[in-house]
Amino acid sequence: MTEITPNKGRAKMWIVVINIIVMIIYTLLIRFLNNDAYPRNNLSIGLFIATILAAHIFTCIIVAVILFFCSYKDQAKYWLLSSLLLLLVGFSTCYAMFTIK
What we know:
Layout: H1 8-12, H2 14-33, H3 42-69, H4 73-99
């Protein structure tokens, strides 16, 4: 008989949480470090964040594909979920960078 533990999915959800926290940290760092030292417009800051975010999303997808083919399909789902959430939250943040003056 197989025993189901309720905390198994919760432990793997940390993959998503850590990726979102990393995205928040580098977004805030880029936004606040570019305020006074280098007077740039919001377009360049938004494009820079979008480029880093695209690399982050691409990395999550690559990790998900590798885990899927290495028979870690359960973890691969969480990496794919993480990339989709980064796509949704991250590019809406970039859009906000373009519009905030």
